[in-house]
Design goal:
Number of domains: 1
Distance between the termini: 8 Å
Oligomer: single chain
Shape: globular
Largest sheet: 8 strands, mixed
Low-confidence stretches: 1-27
Strand content: 15-25%
Number of strands: 10
C-alpha cells in the first residue's frame, strides 16, 4: 500500500554546512537527495553491493551537481584529509558493512591515504584516526528509539560525548548540541541516512521486531543533518499511518529533530524549506 506525501521545495540557509565547500559557493536551499532502487535487496533479503554503490554515487552527483563520481567526491573530500566514517553498530540494524566498504573505497579514490581512514561507532573518542580527523562522514540506519523517538543522524554523534547519558533528558531534546563538540564541530562533510529496511515501530529500549521493518530500499543524502533526518522521519510517520491505519505518534516524539532547527539552528526541519530530489524506484512518492 502506497500513499503520496507531498513535499515542496523552499528557500533556506544551509546553516549546518559552510557557506563554501572548497571554494564553491553553496546554494541557499537545503538540498536533500532521496534515492531508491528496487534491485538493491533481492527476494531473499540479500543486499547488492554494486547496486548500493551505484545508488550512493548517483545521489552524491545529484547532491553536488557534479557530472562524475570522482568530481562529486572531490567536492567533499581532499587528499590531505583524515577521515572518520561514523557508523552505527546496533546489532539488530547496523550500518551495512557493504556501505561502509563503499564509502571507504570512494574516500581512498579521492586521494586519502588508507591509514588516514577509520570506520567506527563506539570508541571514536579513543580512535587515533578520529582523534586527528579533519573530515567526518555520518552514516547510520533510521529506526525508532525508546529515548529519542528515532535513532537519527543527529543522534549518531552521541558517541563523541564524554558522557552520552547527559543528552538523554527530555527525550534527548538537545542532541543538536553534539555538533558543537570539539571532535565534531565544522568537520562533517556528508550525511547518509540508511533507509534500506527502516524500523518504524518499537516499544522499550532494546525492542526489535522484523515485522516492523520494511524493504524501503533507499538512501537519503545531504549536507544538512536536520533536513535529512526530517525527511526520514516523515517517511517513518507515513509508514506508521499506513500500517496502523491511523495517526499513531511516536512515543516519545522525535522532538530533537525539530528543536535542532528551532532551538539550536543546526539546520532546517520544515519540509517547506527543503529541496527534496527524489530519484529511482517510485521516485514520485515517499511511501
Amino acid at each position: 500500500m502506497k500513499k503520496s506525501l507531498a513535499v515542496t521545495a523552499g528557500s533556506m540557509l544551509l546553516s549546518a554546512f559552510p557557506k563554501k565547500l572548497f571554494g564553491r559557493p553553496l546554494t541557499d536551499k537545503s538540498r536533500v537527495v532521496l534515492i531508491r532502487d528496487n534491485r538493491v535487496i533481492d527476494g531473499s533479503g540479500n543486499l547488492s553491493e554494486p547496486i548500493l554503490q551505484d545508488m550512493l554515487d548517483k545521489a552524491l552527483m545529484q547532491l553536488t551537481g557534479e557530472a562524475t563520481v570522482r568530481e562529486a567526491w572531490g567536492r567533499i573530500i581532499r587528499p590531505s584529509d583524515v577521515v572518520g566514517i561514523k557508523s552505527n553498530v546496533w546489532h539488530n540494524l547496523p550500518t551495512p558493512p557493504e556501505l561502509e566498504n563503499i564509502i571507504r573505497k570512494r574516500v581512498i579514490e579521492a586521494g586519502v591515504n588508507e591509514a588516514d581512514i577509520s570506520v567506527k561507532d563506539r570508541g571514536v573518542l579513543n580512535d587515533p584516526v578520529f582523534r586527528r580527523a579533519t573530515a567526518l562522514i555520518n552514516v547510520r540506519p533510521m529506526r525508532t528509539h525508546a529515548w529519542s523517538g528515532v535513532g537519527s543522524l543527529i543522534k549518531n554523534y552521541i558517541m563523541f560525548a564524554e558522557k552520552p547519558s547527559a543528552y538523554h533528558p527530555d527525550s534527548c531534546a538537545d542532541l543538536a548540541t553534539l555538533f558543537e563538540l570539539p571532535a565534531v564541530k565544522g568537520k562533517t562533510r556528508l550525511h547518509i541516512l540508511v533507509m534500506l529496511t527502516p524500523l518504524f515501530h518499537g516499544v522499550g529500549p532494546h525492542h526489535f521486531n522484523k515485522e516492523f521493518t520494511w524493504p524501503y530500499k533507499g538512501l537519503i543524502v545531504g549536507f544538512d543533518p536536520v533536513a535529512v533526518d526530517s525527511t526520514g522521519l516523515r517517511i517513518i510517520e507515513a509508514k506508521r499511518r499506513l500500517y496502523f491505519n491511523e495517526d499513531r505518534p511516536l512515543n516519545p516524539p522525535a522532538k530533537h529533530i525539530l528543536l535542532a532547527d528551532t532551538r539550536h539552528h543546526l539546520g532546517h526541519a520544515d519540509p517547506e524549506h527543503i529541496q527534496l530530489i527524489k530519484t529511482g524506484w517510485d521516485e514520485d512518492i515517499l511511501i
